[in-house]
């Protein structure tokens, strides 16, 4: 049983000192590797590891083809300014090969886990002779995996998998007693710039978790462009998390007087503290219209945006609808108070795939309303 350290009880200075000594004790005179994604969890672990081991910790950014626009170079630049060298490893071909033909969200997560830990990092560890991998697993990751909400790619021992036997190296998890608010507190205390410790959460499977169905390079590129727009426009809202999700369905409309097929982009935005519970962020309608216009302008492959409206208890939820050419915008964010469900199909809090009557959303597509 993992003993939680709540943000109220957390003394960041003492925590940092304790974890630095713990890392030193475990690694000894050897070397360790850590994978940096640029999120607050992996960024905080990177700083803890470098404070403990210095040049004996090799930090890598795995370019899997699933990250946000310009993320590898941006993250490497942040850490260069902090005195940490980040090596970017191109593994795009391996990850897309592993994802080919897979549509089930849990199978996608497993494919990414096996590719990351066994193939990519397994090879790096063998080549460099390192026996330890530092990673930013937090308590919420464990809770979600053990409870069956979703399989977090970085959780092993808690579900009976021995990483040393499975992958050939030991995993060190300095943040496993903390939740997201605690990690932000430690990240700030250890010297991360606000651009890093205040970053919104981003899933381990990256943009593949934001694509319903097969995560092909083309579909990832579509959601990457939409994500760039969503994060830029909603950055100032103060929301805990916001995202673009590419649906599998195709929708019909009119373009230049002719019938055309397009894709659906859903936008979610909500408020939370610890990533366990959440409430929808109240966004201005004009903001939603701007999102729709800019995503359509940015992405020329006939993408439509559907920020989906929650259905209130009793079935009286209001929906705002705006038609603009062949676009229909159906407003509002995640109604259920649960963070990033990825593909959503196994998340009872997901508004699209919720099995609970009265807890879903209404989606309108050119005159037809579907629950």
Tell me about this structure.
By secondary structure, the protein is an alpha/beta fold. The chain has 2 domains: 12-197, Rossmann fold (3-Layer(aba) Sandwich); 211-370, GMP Synthetase, Chain A, domain 3 (2-Layer Sandwich), CATH 3.30.300.10. Helices cover 36% and strands 19% of the residues. The protein has 11 helices and 13 strands. It has helices at residues 12-27, 40-53, 71-81, 92-99, 105-128, 139-146, 163-167, 180-189, 194-197, 217-234, 285-298; strands at 32-35, 57-63, 86-90, 132-134, 170-172, 241-255, 258-271, 279-280, 303-305, 321-324, 327-330, 363-365, 368-370. The strands form 4 sheets. Strands 3-2-1-4-5 form a 5-stranded parallel beta sheet. Helix 2 (40-53) packs across helix 8 (180-189), helix 4 runs antiparallel to helix 5 (105-128) and helix 10 packs antiparallel against helix 11 (285-298). The longest helix is centred in the N-terminal third of the chain and has 24 residues, at 105-128. It is globular. 47% of the residues are buried. Mean pLDDT is 77; it is low at 300-371.
How are the SSEs placed, and which strands pair?
Elements: H1 12-27, E1 32-35, H2 40-53, E2 57-63, H3 71-81, E3 86-90, H4 92-99, H5 105-128, E4 132-134, H6 139-146, H7 163-167, E5 170-172, H8 180-189, H9 194-197, H10 217-234, E6 241-255, E7 258-271, E8 279-280, H11 285-298, E9 303-305, E10 321-324, E11 327-330, E12 363-365, E13 368-370
Parallel strand pairs: 1-2, 1-4, 2-3, 4-5, 7-9
Antiparallel strand pairs: 6-7, 7-8, 10-11, 12-13
